Q: What sequence folds into this?
């Protein structure tokens, strides 16, 4: 938690000092001046929304008009807010260490998105300034799990954020979609409980947050220089979702969809600018294919 380009810079500086070599592929989340990607901070949040789109498509639903409750407003949460607003959805609840915000209008404007960046830079432990700035509700000391006026829950803050007490509130809320975004945000007992509930679709964090590591993998595969620039985020989330559904159906009577193949599972390209030449990669079957 709380690790950004500055902290990764500290780690990489020590790595170079100890090894005496320039191997900038050993860490992700680097600064732009030493091989980082412009899209990496938002990549996990963007990928989570793309995955949500696949879940909704599987259920013959769409993302337009969906209201989302999340925990966290760091890089991942901010990425969720931004991409959701671009696709016609909106985050109406978000929680921080001090409580949660309820903004019925959603975090959908540049002013609100930019304010969150400023707010967390000044004081990452408090989200109440957002409520003070925009005149919306703030509930101190609580999480937003259990609110009923949303369509999707997306825990995106930290491990074991959702415990059994919160899981019971989520089950009672009637909300259909529970999309894990942070690494293991649900305790084991709470996750097993939610998976047993009829009417709740649970998406696992290992698949949902693959967008971030996908960008990191492509950056490493390209051996990017400090001048390289990512202009488009890859979208490996379709084959990731297909594989996740297939795995969840294994050993059951549920229809098993075909696992994504190299010929069918392609996604939007990642483009990099290096040394005056544009390089393009395309995710295929969940892996970064050859650069050209």
A:
């Amino acid at each position: 938690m709380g690790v950004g380009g500055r902290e990764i810079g500290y780690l990489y500086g020590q790595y170079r000092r100890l090894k005496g070599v320039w191997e900038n592929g050993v860490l992700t989340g680097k600064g732009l001046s030493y091989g980082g990607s412009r899209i990496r901070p938002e990549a996990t949040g963007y990928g989570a929304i793309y995955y949500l789109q696949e879940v909704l498509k599987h259920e013959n639903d769409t993302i337009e008009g969906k209201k989302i409750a999340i925990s966290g407003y760091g890089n991942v949460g901010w990425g969720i807010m931004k991409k959701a607003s671009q696709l016609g959805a909106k985050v109406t609840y978000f929680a921080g260490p001090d409580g949660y915000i309820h903004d019925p209008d959603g975090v959908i404007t540049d002013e609100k998105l930019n304010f969150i960046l400023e707010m967390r830079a000044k004081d990452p432990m408090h989200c109440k300034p957002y409520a003070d700035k925009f005149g919306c509700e703030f509930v101190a000391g609580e999480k937003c799990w259990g609110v009923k006026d949303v369509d999707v829950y997306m825990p995106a803050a930290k491990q074991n954020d959702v415990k059994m007490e919160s899981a019971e509130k989520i089950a009672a809320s009637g909300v259909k979609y529970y999309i894990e975004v942070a690494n293991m945000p649900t305790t084991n007992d709470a996750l097993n409980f939610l998976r047993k509930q009829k009417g709740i679709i649970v998406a696992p964090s290992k698949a949902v947050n693959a967008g971030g590591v996908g960008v990191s993998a492509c950056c490493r595969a390209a051996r990017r220089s400090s001048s390289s620039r990512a202009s488009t985020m890859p979208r490996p989330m379709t084959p990731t979702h297909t594989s996740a559904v297939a795995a969840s159906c294994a050993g059951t009577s549920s229809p098993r969809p075909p696992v994504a193949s190299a010929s069918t599972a392609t996604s939007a390209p990642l483009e990099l600018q290096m040394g005056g030449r544009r390089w393009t990669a395309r995710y295929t079957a969940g892996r970064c294919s050859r650069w050209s």
Notes: Residues 167 and 191 are 8 Å apart (CA to CA). The chain is about 40% helix and 15% strand. Residues 223-234, 255-292 have pLDDT under 50 and may be disordered. The longest strand covers residues 90-96.
